[in-house]
Design goal:
Shape: globular
Largest sheet: none
């Protein structure tokens, strides 16, 4: 998928809708969240988008999407868990996890593709106080959308025509992440089949 072409085709409204659906609906996890932000930053650096407008629609899309996911979790989350026959022990474990890492998960959730769709729903399902969720999601949305987009904008302003290579940049990033994960697993001994047997 050519994310740069997608951004140019859908415009500001499409950018907003993409982030809103990805963060607000569980089915939106397949949408290009991080790559969208990077493409927006690079296109803004190439003067093909207005940076201030793009930053605003990205932030609003993330914040409103998070809150949609939260209220969907409050409304239909318990029923979904009941139909899925989730055990009480698992629910208790989830409660303890969110009580310990809830704030952190909301702040870092936007940086993880599946988490950014799931965390708001889980917070609503577990009935985290809305005002607390709202403040944390506001900060998380701000850090994610503005931070990643502005970094891409800065890099794009230093290296001309970088927006043409968004796809290659993303593939390189994914490849590096995979290699790093395999290396860590190898060093921790979780991949014994990669180790040479002793002579």
């Amino acid at each position: 998928m050519d994310v740069s072409a997608y951004v140019q085709a859908v415009g500001y409204l499409g950018i907003f809708a993409t982030v809103f659906v990805e963060t607000g609906l569980l089915v939106g996890f397949f949408l290009p969240g991080d790559s969208l932000l990077i493409a927006v930053g690079l296109l803004a650096a190439a003067s093909q988008l207005q940076l201030s407008i793009a930053l605003l629609v990205l932030f609003l899309g993330s914040l409103l999407g998070n809150n949609l996911g939260y209220f969907l979790g409050r409304k239909i989350g318990p029923a979904l868990l009941s139909k899925a026959r989730v055990r009480n022990e698992d629910l208790d474990r989830t409660h303890r996890f969110m009580a310990r890492f809830g704030p952190l998960s909301i702040l870092i959730g936007p940086y993880v593709p599946v988490f950014r769709a799931v965390v708001p729903f889980v917070c609503g399902t577990l009935k985290m106080p809305w005002w607390r969720f709202f403040l944390l999601s506001l900060l998380g949305s701000l850090l994610w959308t503005q931070g990643l987009t502005l970094v891409a904008y800065y890099v794009g302003s230093k290296i001309p025509h970088l927006e043409r290579y968004v796809y290659l940049i993303l593939l390189s990033g994914v490849g590096f992440a995979v290699v790093l994960a395999v290396w860590r697993a190898y060093r921790s001994g979780r991949l014994p089949w990669l180790r040479r047997s002793a002579p």
